[in-house]
Amino acid sequence: MENKTLFGELPLGWKHVALSDVTTFISRGRQPKYIASVEGIPVINQKMIRNFTIDYRYVKYNDAKKNINKSVFIKIGDTLVNSTGVGTVGRSAYISIDPMRPTFVDSHVTIVRPDTAIVDPKFMSVVLSSDVYSNYMGSILAQGSTGQVELSRQKLSKMCIPFPPLNTQHLIGTIFDLIDQKIKLNHQINKNLLRLAKQQFNLTFPNVHEGNSRLSNVMENFDRKRIPLARREREKRQGVYRYVGATSVLDYVDDYLFDGTYLLMGEDGTVQDEKGFPILQYIWGKFWPNNHTHVLSGTFVSTEWLYLFLMNTNVRSRITGAVQQKISQANMNSIPLTIPSKDELFRFQKQIEPVFSQIQLLDEQNLKLTATHKLLLPKLLAGQIDLSNLEGAIQNA
């Protein structure tokens, strides 16, 4: 096998091997028979694979009466690879913990199951989830007509990856596992902080949803504008990120960019799911300040206050549409509220600002950790970093 990979020349003693040589199973999932009840069997679909992990907000359920081959149920150590669709092929996620219930993948997702006797599962997943390999799978290996591209099992099986000695794999896997665990911890802390903020809001303003005023009195517009495909593709190649704070979502630019003082309903104005997950997200950072929803200047209502108000509002009752459910600007503007006094708002803002500052701090830390992840991997796989020093640092941490 040649001594050059997508990351460049291999360090001395490393190999270049096909995935089929270091795995026990590579296969697409099965076509489910979806049902509305959560009593069915959870199914992982392409939409769930994002940010190198599984987002269970988008889970669907299979009819338990339909028999599914046990081999396509996920296991710890599996890497799941999106295998159909422009812009989605090549995205992958690592299964680090057992799901609470037996869960399988649908036919648009491929399971790559490592042979743990010769390859470290985390190491293999880190390689496959890298920008280099994700882009290679999506742009080179995938084939088909516009909008219908697919990554075949055969091509994926023949794809070669760097293969250092097992102890080096373990070390690299541990490094990235530590980074990922810190990111997950920050996510959980922020969820808890946001929960506390919502509770404090309800205690401070118990009757805020009863009043003669309307949301339009403190908001501007709910216009949305999709970024052109060419720009999204260019920014993805450049490594530009869309960053949604408070709910700690980090992903490539693929839909929208917003300014830091604005609120976003869902990802595109649609309802995200049917199980009551928040459809409102608070946007940190300065990105694209056109066509957004903004707190009106001249009012004492802050973006944080408005965010918590909407998070505690039955927005779902204002949804229209049978298939593509949306919340119109008119329906949002007519939400009733009582605008608290200036003094009440000022006191609450002093209480809540430290909470949102901490959320923002941890979100920004996750941005830096993710950037470190992206920068570190190519250097490690090219042998540009002395792993012996890192091994000592990890042992003493």
Low-pLDDT sequence parts? 222-227, 239-279, 281-294
Structural class: alpha+beta
Number of strands: 21
For the biggest sheet, the summary is:
4 strands, antiparallel
Residues in helices, as a percent range: 25-40%
Give the C-alpha Rg. 23 Å
Shape: globular
Say what oligomer this is: single chain
**What's the tally of helices?**
9
Biggest sheet, spatial arrangement of strands: 4-13-10-11
Distance between the termini: 37 Å
Q: How much of the residues is beta strand, in percent?
A: 15-25%
The chain-level mean pLDDT equals: 76
The topology string of helices and strands comes to EEEEEEEEEEEEEHHHEHEHEEEEEHHEHH
What is the element layout, followed by pairings?
Layout: E1 4-5, E2 8-9, E3 15-18, E4 23-28, E5 34-35, E6 41-44, E7 49-50, E8 53-54, E9 60-62, E10 79-82, E11 92-94, E12 104-105, E13 109-114, H1 121-129, H2 131-141, H3 153-158, E14 160-163, H4 166-204, E15 213-214, H5 229-237, E16 241-244, E17 249-252, E18 262-265, E19 280-282, E20 293-294, H6 303-311, H7 329-333, E21 336-337, H8 342-381, H9 387-396
Parallel strand pairs: 6-12
Antiparallel strand pairs: 1-2, 3-14, 4-13, 5-9, 6-9, 7-8, 10-11, 10-13, 15-21, 16-17, 18-19, 18-20
Helix pairs in contact: 1-4, 4-8, 4-9
